Amino acid sequence: MDRIDEFLNTIDILPNELENAKRDLFSKGIENHKEIRDALYSFRSKKVKYSEIASAYRYDKRIRLVLYKYISYIEEFFRARVVDFFVECSNDEKSEIFIKKKKPHDKIKTVDEIYTLDFNNLSALLMKIPNFESLCKFPPNEHIKQNIKALIVLRNAVMHNRFLQFFNSYKHCFYNGAKQEAKLRYNIINMMQFLPIEAAQKCKLEINKCKNYKNTQGDVKWTLPKELYIDLDI
Predict the structure, then answer these.
(1) Inter-residue contact 75 to 121 (CB < 8 Å)
(2) Predicted confidence band of residue 102 (pLDDT cuts 50, 70, 90)
């Protein structure tokens, strides 16, 4: 018996779901499916259904696709602020922020080099700019650097296609001055703080709609466990 069959023996699966299940276990990975299965077993004692695992996977992917769009906006915005500051700042500021005390391979001497930075290094560079909060027109927030660090972790989880619901490396962030749990919901809310108000509202609506039934022909039955619902109404 191969590992796929071993996995299928641990869940409830209908005969007409077998073909889809074997295809998805091969393409998306057995370990990813085991992570979802084990998390669902932590919620209940009855046997987990394959349709619940498939629905959880699709739900998480819907969330990732929404977050990808809005995180891309934030990353583009951060890069624009750094590039514009680099072009407009004095030579002394340029030396202090982009060149001085940096290792040779980390020195930034051209705009093109800013475009090669990953989000972690880009964000670190942004936070070195004096009064970067006002440069970005962010509202006053004494915890903004911690919130950016949390945003970096969420961004990387999304871009690396991690299963967001059960990802366990989120950072604590702050909302309305209060420290929040290091959970997906609060990290999404934190991300929304870096968006324009209209975009944040649109993001909230799109995330809330991810749990809605919208199967296409050939999809496994949509049976998303309610324990996985994320509601961003705050």
Answers:
(1) no
(2) low
What pLDDT, in 10s, does the model give residues 147-159? 999 999 999 999 9
The answer to whether the beta carbons of residues 181 and 172 sit under 8 Å apart is yes
Q: What is the pLDDT of residues 29-64, one digit of tens each?
A: 999 999 999 999 888 878 999 999 999 999 999 999
Query: What residue has token string 């982009």?
Result: 98
- Number of other CB atoms surrounding residue 127 within 10 Å: 14
pTM over 0.85, yes/no: yes
Does an H or E element contain 39, and which? Answer: helix 30-41
DSSP 8-state secondary structure symbol assigned to residue 164: G
Structure tokens at 231: 């509601």
The first and second tokens of residue 79, run together, are: 């890069």
**What is the sign, positive or negative, of the torsion defined by CA atoms of 92, 94, 99, 100?**
positive
Angstrom distance (rounded) from CA 89 to CA 22:
57
Which residue pairs, CB below 8 angstroms and at least 24 apart, start in 80-85? 81/126, 81/129, 81/132, 81/135, 81/136, 82/114, 82/122, 82/125, 82/126, 82/129, 83/111, 83/114, 83/115, 85/129, 85/135
Q: Which amino acid is at 17?
A: E
Closest CA to 152 of 77, 63, 75: 75
CB 191 within 8 A of CB 175: no
Range list of β-strands (E), the chain: 173-175, 178-180
**Backbone phi and psi for residue 175, each to the nearest 5 degrees, phi listed first:** -135, 130
Res 20 pLDDT > 80: yes
